Amino acid sequence: MLLRIYFFTILFIGNPISTIAQNCSNGEVVEYLNEAEKIKKSDPVKSEQSAEKALFCSRKLDLKPSIIKSLNILGFHHLMSGRSKKAHECFQESLNLAEKTKDTLQIATANNNLGNYYNYRGLHKLSLEYYLTSLKLKREINYTEGIDVALVNIGIVFDQQGKHKQAIDHYEQALVLKKASGDNVGIGICYENMGIAHAENHAFSKASECFDKALAIYEAHDITGYIISVQLSAISAELESGNSINATSRLKKLEPTIRKSEDVVMLQIWHDLHAKLNIEQNRLNLAHQFADSSLNYAEQSEDISLIISSYNRLAELEKVKGNEQNLLRYTNTALKLKDSLNQLNNRVAIEEMQLRYESNELQNKINLQQKDIELLNLSNRLKMYSILLVGSIALLIIGSLYFKYRRSENAKQVLNEEVSIRNKELLSYTVRTAKKNEAIQKLKKTLNESINDANPNPPYKAKLFSLFKEIEQTEDHWKVFRLRFEKIDPTFFEELSHRFKLTETDLRICALIKLNVTTKEAANMLNITADSVNKSRYRLRKKLNLSKEVELNSFIQSIS
């Protein structure tokens, strides 16, 4: 059986990076994506970390092209690391997002990646469906580079299914496009895959010719991995055709390069081919060494198919040796592993079928929901018209209420202005009265001093001081004061009298405190000294039952 080495082409197509970079945050996304793509094969761990950062930032900024690109890179790393479920989730989300954005190229790319996923899992029928869809979409938009990739991938699937002529036909179509675009490496890949298909079809001379063309291109571009790949494919074909001389020559030519390689898959295949060649040449001890090394590399790769191949080679060697016990042991081990692989593939197939069924069910639900949404939209439009009508009526009512409110506010403003004017008048009256009383007191003092200096007991002295006393004791100005005060605060005196046992003097002091007059002005208004006013304030606090923490002025201001 000819050993195969395929290169799955996972595309990451999107809008040019330069169009994404609009600001600093977008620039970080671009930086992460460029780094992830650049070191995708040389440093897969760091590449995956950069892709995860790019995905996080892209989701945060809602940059859909960048989200798709990040998912594709992450899907590639998950697939190459054996995390198939996560790989499928990434590729499927990429497809769903591409379909939402209606970007045909992105949809085609996502289908291609899902085709790679199913091909890697050995589900060739599903793989072919996705590849064909990808090819159809790329042809619709005339995306030449993508078309040749899809053709190569379809050819690989046909080759795996044993449809070698169909595979070759697709490789040849891809080769024409690769030559037209000048993609030399792509031309080499086409020739290599054509060589594998010809070898499987037992056209070994054509296979050798194709392998040599591919090798010449790879060597011209110094692509080590591809050089090893095509040489191993050519050696396998030479051994299959029975041309051990050419196989030996190619193995020796490849040895310096392969021994520098750290690719355990390539090393496994090289040692396995050496084991096969030495078995054919009856160099069984040397064959056993290569077969053991082949198994060791296969186990390092953790690829069950390679491990089965290595055990089969050991079984073939033991058969030639005639060691039936070891033959039976290696054969049974290979069969058990093959059964396990088949069971795994069956489970995968069942899971994939279940996944597709659930996907179809989900799509049906989405379609039903879309119809419900259309009906809901119609209902919402009717509701909107009703709301507009009700809203218009409501606006009229609100407008009417607003005008009433404005009238009320204007009335309040007029009233406040009137109160303010009356308050100013009362305060002015209080100040004038205080000043008048102060002037009377000064006049009384001056006259008293003058009379005493001139004549201690003039006949008019008693009459004059009797007149001053009559002026001081008049209550007319307090009546005017109270009338004016009650126009501003009608309930002030009533509330104080109701709550506390206060004298008329107490009420007057409370009114003056309410007007924020000074102690001196209050003394003049009451025709008493400032000390008397303070004593009255002290007695007033007791009558009002005020604690030390409560200020008399604040308490009086709170009464309204």
**Secondary-structure element order, as H and E?**
HHHHHHHHHHHHHHHHHHHHHHHH
What fold name stands as the CATH topology of the domain at 1-161? Serine Threonine Protein Phosphatase 5, Tetratricopeptide repeat
* Largest sheet descriptor: none
- SS-derived structural category: mainly alpha
Task: Count all strands and give the number.
Answer: 0
**What share of the residues lie within helices?**
over 70%
CATH architecture of the domain at 1-161: Alpha Horseshoe
**Rg, Å, rounded:** 52 Å
Please report the distance between the alpha carbons of the first and last residues.
108 Å
Strand content: under 5%
CATH superfamily of the domain at 1-161, by name, is Tetratricopeptide repeat domain
CATH class of the domain at 1-161: Mainly Alpha
Mean pLDDT over all positions: 81
Contiguous runs where pLDDT drops below 50 for at least 5 residues: 1-24
Count of discrete alpha- or pi-helical segments spanning 4 or more residues:
24
Shape: elongated
